[in-house]
Amino acid sequence: VVDSLRALGSKIVLTQGSYDLVHIGHARYLETAKKHGDVLIVGIDNDEKIRKRKGPDRPVVPEDERLEMVLHLRAVDFVFLKDVNDPRWHLIKTVKPDVLIAVEDTYTPEEIKELEQICKTVVVLERQATTSTSAKIRLMQLKTAKKLEETLTPRLLKVIQETLGSQEE
Length: 169
What we know:
Elements: H1 2-7, E1 12-17, H2 24-34, E2 39-45, H3 47-54, H4 63-71, E3 78-82, H5 90-95, E4 99-103, H6 109-115, E5 121-125, H7 133-168
Parallel strand pairs: 1-2, 1-4, 2-3, 4-5
């Protein structure tokens, strides 16, 4: 695919990520990435790769749904699933994009220099939203915990009081 696009003179842009619970920051990021070339390819981490990096409860959305969801974003032309067993930078080395897009903290300055030997340009973008998927999940967990506390605590206290009261009789 990439060879054919290059033969047509297309400037290839590549970015990568988890894209779990796709949100406005993802959409803005991919729109901005697309402005750096003609064709935007997105590498999406498979479920096992995300679990290894983010923990056993992630991803929230399974890989097949994440692939489809990202592909529905207008800036995205192609998506590829990245396997946990792929060698380091496998997709980058395969695609050899004209422009590699990343967010802050993805690569060290030394890694960027190394990547510039594979890609023509590495562009580091700021995050495009104030909250991340992980932050949104934490917020949902906190809200759920608060609701449970508000609902269960009075009921538990009542049961304890009733139990202790019946033991005194």
